[in-house]
Amino acid sequence: MSLITRANIARTLLLGFFLLFTFVPLYWMFITSIKPSDDYLAVPPVWFPAEPTMLHYTAALFAYRGLDGLINSVIISAAATLLSTVLGTLMAYSLARFNTGGQHLSFWVLSQRFLPPIAIVLPIFLIYRAVGLHDTHFGLIIAYTVFTLPVTVWMMFAYFRQMPKSLEEAALVDGCTRWQSLWRVAIPLAMPGIVAAAVFAFIACWTEFFFALILTSQTAFTLPTVFRAFLGFQGAQYGEASALAMVSLVPSIILGILVQRHLVRGLTLGAVRG
Amino acid sequence: MAHVTIKGLHKHFGAVHVVKGIDLAIADGEFTVLVGPSGCGKSTLLRTVAGLEQASEGTIEIGGKVVNDTRPRDRDVAMVFQDYALYPHMTVAQNIGFGLRARNFPRPEIETRVKRAAKMLNIDQLLDRLPRQLSGGQRQRVAIGRAIVRNPQIFLFDEPLSNLDAQLRDEMRSEIKRLHQELGATMIYVTHDQIEAMTLADRIVLMNAGQIEQSGTPLELYEKPRTRFVAGFLGSPKINFIKARLENAGIVFADGQTLKLPAVDAQRYAAHAGKPVIFGIRPQHIDRAPMTGSPHIKSTVDLVQPTGARTYVTFTIGGEPVMAELDAHDAGKPGDEIAIALDLAHFLLIAPENGNVLGR
Asked: Which of A97, A236, B194, B244 has the least CB density, counted as fewest CB within 10 Å?
């Protein structure tokens, strides 16, 4: 009895500590976003402001153009995720089923990630400026597509490889063309993998800062780049930064809720001998 | 329904030569079983007929038309896979009807056909289930339903029963045989199980190392094997091979005991007299003999394995283990001295140097 209780206490403490670790910063961010500026660094700390204010939100979204950044981020991340997922899935299927390019091509795809981004950002910047892609949505979309492709391809490659080939072969004999067997059998079965790959790609695009900073300025700037404005010579704009950070969480949370169902594995169970 | 003609078929996977020159004509409505040990090329041959593999050399004709460059979907074949290959995201009804949907059949027709096929296979109460909710036997029935619903020219089976347990396997085997009788379709069936081959086939094609070792009716192969490999592959328990020498007096075993051959046989094998041979005899053709009188070989019982009506008894002849299938009451016990009669209407003599059966 006492042993069980002790284990329970230990578990509760551990979970409690973990919850604190996760939620206190979030709470602090939320509180800071509605605190009047004078309360930011007050001693003792203000745990809940007497007079909450939405001032930081309006400033961050409009004065600092956070809303534009948010819209740009949604457009660019969504488009790059879509492209990366579609292209990556097709590439991975080709690599997995037709052994396209032998064993070297698949590794070459992954090896694109070995290159430190800083090594290529200047050439890309120069090229973009020369061809007029600098500070365009399209420019950032293709850049993000290219950067997220290796991981997408690699994830889907692994996924297709563990999927039994006989399902697609059965479809071919049953009367499908190659495309139909991909579309009607392989893709539906790979959905959990595709969703997972898409989530990874989206998160990578959504949080990307470095390329957005170099490749955009006044038009196609993304949400992360807006934050740079909150660190100025007169100090940090804690309230505005927190408000915008709160806003930037929203799409991630919506995405998480939407795809949660698909992320559950095990759809292939029962396909073949179980 | 259609006949299949395979001419000079070769298949390479990179440097590996898997199918090495197959010539085979399968008649309309025939049940042909491709059998052989793992890696003999039988599955590859079947997949080449299905169009899932490209022939490296040679031609395949279905119904008189060369189909080497025809896509699987246009060959009008149906295939049942070893792992069933049911689409896990579709119900039983959708699985069975998939081929018809892919070919744009009208919806009502799909429905009636699916129902008819399901009824034939006793799975009509499972139509709304998903594959993962089915047992192994039920899954295999769905896979077969998916094949018959399309009414194809050729049925291809790739080791369809090897994932089932023994009892289910017997049941499904009868089912497939019954199906062939009802549909009268051409069926090509791959297995490594000689019992399946013997029981199902109109014709067995026994393959070894990418080539056809022998083909013929099950009884032909069983009774008149052309090589040691064929003799050893078919029959259970396995045929006994005993090293011996052929002399004018008869077969001389390593321990000096001699088995006198009937005059006809002595004459037939006269050309090989004085040479070493392998004497082959099936366990069913060995019996106990009275200790006196009729010609016999003497030995000592080594091992007794009862199976019910029959008992497998192991002893040695000329130092080599030999198994006999005896009446349970004749079996004796280990250590018994016994006299053995070998049925000389059913024996084989094999040339040790090439494994060919002599006198054929």
From this structure: A236
